[in-house]
Amino acid sequence: MAFASFDQKNASAPMAEINMVPLIDVMLVLLVIFMVTAPLLTHAVKLDLPRATSQVSPPKPDAIEFSIDASGARFWGKEALTREQAADRFRVEALKQPQPELHLRVDQATAYRAVAETMADASKAGLAKVGFVTEPDRK
After folding, report:
1. What is the C-alpha separation between 30 and 32, in angstroms, rounded?
2. Neighbours of 64 (CB within 10 A)
């Protein structure tokens, strides 16, 4: 591959060779750029996925629907109770396996004392899962 040749015979003939070195250099630079940037373009989210088992799921525990109205009266479902009767029923329910969940529905005008007493009675009885039931805000 001679650019300035003293050979007069082949001087006017077109050059039939392509210089590949610059093309290979550009290709290698692009390859390195893609190798560096490709892992950065993947947006992987690290998750701790649950393990699948073929075992039967344990039965879901029952829920205790407990309500307190604005006057402080306590209701087990639709049955009116005193505080002592409710505490006795909490003790009985706490012995069940699996332990039921206590769904507490309270009127917004109820004194906090009645709610705190009920939660304390449930905690003393051994009920571990207490949830408050509310209505969504309608806007």
Report:
1. 5
2. 20
